[in-house]
Amino acid sequence: MVTAAYSYLGSSTLDDGLTLQTSGGAAAHPRFFTGFLTSPGAAATGLLAVAEVARTRYFRPLPPASLDPVVTAGSDRLRFESFSGCCGVYARMDVLPGGLDGEILAHGTTNVDVNLPLQRALTRVGRSDPMHVAVGPDDLTVTTFDGPLVERKVPLPSRWLRGFAEAQVLTARFDPRAEIGVAEARALFNRLPAGDRSVLWAVPAGRSLRFTSRPAPGAVCLPGAGRLAALKPFLRYATALRVYGPAVAAGSQPVASTWELSMPGLRLSVTLSPEPHRGFSGEGAVLESLATDEVADDADLISALLSWDPTIDVDELATASGLEAARVRDALTQLGTAGRVGYDVAEAGYFHRTLPYAAEAVERMNPRLAGARALITAGGVTLCDEVSLVVSGAETYHVRNESQSCTCPWWAKYRGGRGPCKHVLAVRMAAAGETAETIAKAEAAA
Which parts of the sequence belong to the SWIM-type domain (predicted)? Predict the structure, then answer.
């Protein structure tokens, strides 16, 4: 059992999977949100897309996995999120203030199954059909012409926690790269080969995008065009396609990207891992932010300051906490490791969830971080001016301080593309002042 200092309506558990039971305030509310969605056909299609991603394994397809979107009621919007069964695709539908005709009664998060009866009912929702939604700590109730359908809370795969954190760190580095109209987007999607797993690069070309096999400045990576399939049904409602990604250059390796269809009141997006066979949960993007002595304490402080504004302002948190902006971002990464913070590329800002947070769970979900601390505790790190030495078992590895490269098999295979190896991480932590004594004190205080 993982516990945290929040007022929940029930207990949250972390066993083989995470079962959520959270509330954003001290009072018990039977519902986080109740009301109608103003674009019912689009919302129904978007929810089906999020559920479709959750049930799909894009790499090595297997029978359908779960259909368990995470639902968050914020101060003025609803968010529905999921990961694919292979954890390589992150989907989210944001129902913005203009898409809601109801009341946010409380802030909270839950996760529910989307079973076959609800799927069938959602497929029959038209543009002008009423669709009422009630989100509570134990269920999601959707009422259509078919009547009310209640989806109960289910366990959340613990692998999703790592996926949430990695996706947050990666997308925080994205910038808008292209925007095209829906007609051009429809033609673009029609050109994409179904089920394609190759890595393409999209380059703005007039009013549309053209695809190349090689990266170039300004390009956006499309790793596995077949993984955009869940977006296609939403094209009939969308008004624009926006694409986000990090800066790339000629010769860049594949990177993650976000593809977003939008309309007034709704946004539906999918974020793709750098390659179809790679899941977000193994990317290692969070490790650098977690490898400091003060990050856990900073996370506790920032957690206490988090508000339910639509986006979290890093500069305001820095002012309120007295921390530098870089430390605030590292603290948000720590919180993101337990899924309590996400990143919205459309608004270039972080947002708040209420998944339970416990600092001691971080290392269990990041074995390289635990391995680095074990190397320091065992006295296996020797810092030198140019090349540091790390003794791990019977092997001694050499870490170049300037390039942060290592002679271990992990580095030879990934060359930093999936985060630092435990030896590089141990050298960074030791250089920052972490010792066996500081680690022992931190463990004793936990």
Answer: 397-432
